[in-house]
Amino acid sequence: MLFVCVHNAGRSQMAEAYANHLARDRGVGLVAESAGTEGGKQLNPLAVQVMSEDGIDMTGQQPKLLTSEMVARADKVVSMGCGVDASACPANFILTEDWELDDPAGQPIEKVRKIRDQIRARVLTLIQEAVNQ
């Protein structure tokens, strides 16, 4: 599974962390990666903080630039906010499912927590779908 956004500094990183953590906890053989169409320089500190509040440590993660190899490895590609920022939408380049999530960059922590919770719920749905296959 591959989660893609523009900078790979917030939404897609949170989705990758949740997918790997929650799948492992449930014994599901799912491996997630994330990447950005314009790789960022560092993770959004608020994204790291709100994930830590939910017991997920993202301190070792770094933004990565999307490659064709990543897309080829993925059984599913999920973009994180094409309905929010269509100008740099990864779906313009690859076939994706889009979650239309707001970008946490520059948002207050309460908004970043809401985005985190939306991501967690959607990742849980993906894991359940993988179990049911």
**Rounded average pLDDT:** 88
Q: Shape, please? A: globular
The fourth-level CATH homologous superfamily is: Response regulator
Strand order of the largest sheet: 2-1-3-4
Largest sheet: 4 strands, parallel
| CATH architectural group | 3-Layer(aba) Sandwich
**CATH fold description:** Rossmann fold
Number of strands: 4
Distance between the termini: 15 Å
* Rg, nearest Å: 13 Å
> How many domain units?
1
Blueprint (SSEs and pairs):
Elements: E1 2-5, H1 11-25, E2 33-36, H2 45-53, H3 68-73, E3 77-79, E4 97-98, H4 109-132
Parallel strand pairs: 1-2, 1-3, 3-4
Helix pairs in contact: 1-4, 2-4
How is this structure best described in words?
The chain is α/β, with parallel strands linked by helices. It has a single domain, classed as Response regulator (Rossmann fold). It contains 4 helices and 4 strands, in the order E-H-E-H-H-E-E-H. The chain has a 4-stranded parallel beta sheet. Helix 1 crosses helix 4 and helix 2 (45-53) crosses helix 4. The longest helix has 24 residues, at 109-132.
What brief labels describe this structure?
4 strands; Rossmann fold; single chain; 133 residues; alpha/beta; 4-stranded parallel sheet
In short:
The chain has 133 residues and is of the alpha/beta class. The protein is built from four helices and four strands. Helices cover 41% and strands 10% of the residues.
